[in-house]
Design brief:
258 residues, globular, 81% helix
């Protein structure tokens, strides 16, 4: 790879790290870029996990320093997600990728409508009684999200935020802190599966991680300083762009100007 592409990798990683920390789906930037550089899709998926891992080390440290993250609370949600992610990274199923992408895009658009309709739920935390039934439901939800995260990763932040805000009653700042902790817990296992399969480019992964970590450092400070209202705006923008890309709408719009 030419030397001048390395700064571009760092730049893309920085933007992705910022988006991942405040909302999610930064991997929709990094995965296509890694494939543009010549990596096969499965190797790009594995290589991206290095950057995700180190990005979330920085994010968790930043949120912990700002005193908005409880490890004890995070473990309740992280443990089922870890088990799901291990299964997701190992699973081998015959899925129609195009149908899957469009389905996820449709779900993201549905989340966009939910956030517009009930903004207070996303900006203000609420007390949710943790009855045995609700706790069992949340365990199941985060296990399923973990399967998705281990299998694909791109867009998992949105689903984690939805589970934490709508299911657990967290505001967006606290939900983002818990989200990055959950991802940090399961990413080493998923990365290990890709490493075992020889599907990781370590040099590109570490270069990308430099950018992701810088973006994550900035994102944690913006989230805490600017509050849930600003995070909600970023989340809405990221949802629209991600849904447009996954459903193919972005490609159709781009084709009109070619």
């Amino acid at each position: 790879m030419e030397w001048y592409l390395y700064p571009a990798v760092v730049g893309v990683g920085m933007l992705a790290g910022f988006i991942n920390t405040l909302a999610g789906s930064g991997s929709l930037l990094t995965l296509p870029f890694l494939m543009f550089l010549g990596l096969p899709a499965n190797v790009a998926n594995g290589t991206n996990r290095i950057a995700i891992l180190l990005q979330n080390v920085v994010s968790v440290g930043g949120f912990r320093q700002k005193k908005v993250l409880s490890f004890r609370e995070g473990l309740w949600y992280a443990l089922p997600a870890v088990l799901g992610a291990l299964l997701g990274a190992r699973i081998a199923v015959n899925l129609d990728e195009e149908v899957m992408r469009r389905t996820i895009g449709g779900l993201l658009l549905f989340m966009f409508v939910l956030i517009l309709y009930k903004p207070s739920r996303w900006q203000k935390g609420r007390d949710v009684p943790m009855t045995p039934g609700r706790r069992a439901l949340l365990v199941g939800i985060f296990f399923l999200i973990g399967i998705y995260g281990g299998f694909i990763q791109a867009g998992v932040g949105f689903f984690l935020l939805a589970g934490l805000v709508l299911g657990a009653g967290a505001d967006l700042v606290k939900a983002n802190a818990l989200k990055v902790f959950i991802i940090l817990m399961y990413t080493p296992l998923a990365l290990g599966v890709f490493m075992w399969s020889g599907q990781v480019n370590y040099l590109l992964g570490l270069v990308l991680a430099v950018g992701n970590m810088a973006g994550a450092w900035l994102g944690t400070r913006v989230a805490v300083s600017w509050g849930p209202r600003f995070v909600r705006i970023i989340l809405l923008a990221a949802l629209v762009i991600s849904a447009a890309k996954l459903t193919g709408l972005a490609d159709r719009i781009a084709a009109l100007f070619v």
